[in-house]
């Protein structure tokens, strides 16, 4: 047991990222049933869809699970009300000021973790009273911090800046990676890419197959004038690169992005015109597995790494 497993009431300090178009009730409940903490990704759900997934997740597991909520969500008040009404006990917030909702959630008995990309924002989390902080490095898929600090640099910096329970994220997809994060000062890890490519993920099978064939350098952080996003190479990404190289404004990039681009790519499997988001660690993931298989591999490899003599 450590502060992360105690805080969330879980067996292993492994949290599944609440990823858009991947993290439905099947994935979240499977991770929780395997001893980790599953998260529903509210960022790609209409409010009533989230309510449905919360209820299905609760029916599928008797273990703790939570909801990841981007604070820039346009219907944030409605989402928060549903989380409280449905008795969710754990919320991970991101993409916004943790002071905005932490007090409100605490008043309703909800544990709050917040995602940051710098030690400066980690200190703001402590001031806001959050219960744990997720420090996410540059390697992560999807939306990313502007600092472009790698996980290996970020974790020790955040550890020295705050006393909060610390969860490492970004580029972690193996048991050895978990062990390395712990050595650097983390008490738990949040894993996205590895779980996005499992059987239980709600992502398109076409998207999963494509990402399982990626190599080093096949993802790139773009859209920095809007919200930095790690994208896989395809027609849409090529168009973004051309626009950015040509000095496109934020408004021009917003027009190019349009609406529903991530859904088109990740959920519907449009490999050319969709927004394909995945982390750098996809380069070392080559086969689709069940969540149970992934969790077993992670735990066993972490234990082997901890027992190994390095000199």
From TrEMBL:
Name the record gives this protein: 2-nitropropane dioxygenase-like dioxygenase
Flavoprotein in keyword set: yes
Naturally occurring in which organism (per UniProt): Bacteroides thetaiotaomicron (strain ATCC 29148 / DSM 2079 / JCM 5827 / CCUG 10774 / NCTC 10582 / VPI-5482 / E50)
GO MF term list: dioxygenase activity; nitronate monooxygenase activity; oxidoreductase activity
Keywords: Dioxygenase, Flavoprotein, FMN, Oxidoreductase
PANTHER family in UniProt: 2-NITROPROPANE DIOXYGENASE, 2-NITROPROPANE DIOXYGENASE-LIKE PROTEIN
InterPro entries noted in UniProt: Aldolase_TIM, NMO
Domain of life according to the entry: Bacteria
